[in-house]
Amino acid sequence: MWNKHEGHREARRAGLHHGGDEGPGISRRRYGRGFRYLDAAGQAIKNPAELRRFRSLALPPAWREVWINPDPLGHIQATARDARHRKQYRYHPSWQTWRSERKFERLLAFAEVLPRLRAQLAADLKTGGDLPGGGGAA
User: For bias kind Basic and acidic residues, which ranges apply (predicted)?
Assistant: First the structure.
């Protein structure tokens, strides 16, 4: 797990702003057969570009307590509660790409040291010696 400072740094590297649903945001309310989006002051948002962005998040209709980030460059674009009251997140596509690339880089680093780990494990098992920490080898 990483701390808040690392999150800010990673978001900047991805060209985004770090932050979550602690601050004011856009809420979603049922309106007729669809939804109305309200700013922090409770005013309906009518800007077509903003409405397109909100709809593009594809938040399921069953989600409640919807919070949408007013910042289109926020790394978290929306949060909500599902039917089982679990918190769900929608991330900015650039954030998802950035995090996937970092995960792949860590996997490559692990793959590079894996042969040494296997060799050490095989040696430890062969000698029947104890592993560090007092546990048995097998």
Answer: 1-21
